[in-house]
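Deliverable D4.2, example record:
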Amino acid sequence: MLFAKTPRSAERLRVGVLGDDPLARRVIVNALSAVADRVEVVASMDSSAINAPPQAALSTHAWLLDLGPSYRQDAEGSPLALGGQPLVALAPDAVSAVVALRETGAVSALSREASGPELAAAVEAACLGLTTLDDAFLQALLAPVVPAALEEAAPAEQVHLTNRELEVVELLAEGRSNREVALALDISEHTAKFHISGLLHKLDAATRTEAVVRALRLGMLEL
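Output generated by the structure prediction step:
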């Protein structure tokens, strides 16, 4: 990946903010106003502008990507199309952070609740080629391998997923919907739902996100 030239220490970093929720983007911009001596926001836009970014967006040193509920990444538009500047993702949870690092080209992942100084520090690190991961995300991924409910029911080695279930959980980790899982595996959506239900049961998970987190902890998925 080609990074924009890192500015001298006396210069402010030029940052772009990308996300589909204008209110969330405004919150990020406001947070960065607390560190205006270190960071200058030169662009704020939604994903529909990825393929035709404004001129100001082309002069950024780095980007902040908000992975809120309304974020969408279509096949023809990607943060990677913005010129190859380092990307810092702002994620709601550990699973979304993993997806961001794997699928969007992000070099770092912070909580969407990160403060202005935390955002500035992550951007500065990214421009130096360093990776930053939110402490809460790291703790979630490094938590004890076997959740308490599983530990009582069966040892970790007895939690076995079929090859098909492993394929499904990998797709869930990429944020795929039931329909997208079905299309990727060339199966019916009903069958996809059946496999997902089986995953939730085997991993003693209440949600798809929880299933992915537990699969990560059990070593069934890799970052």
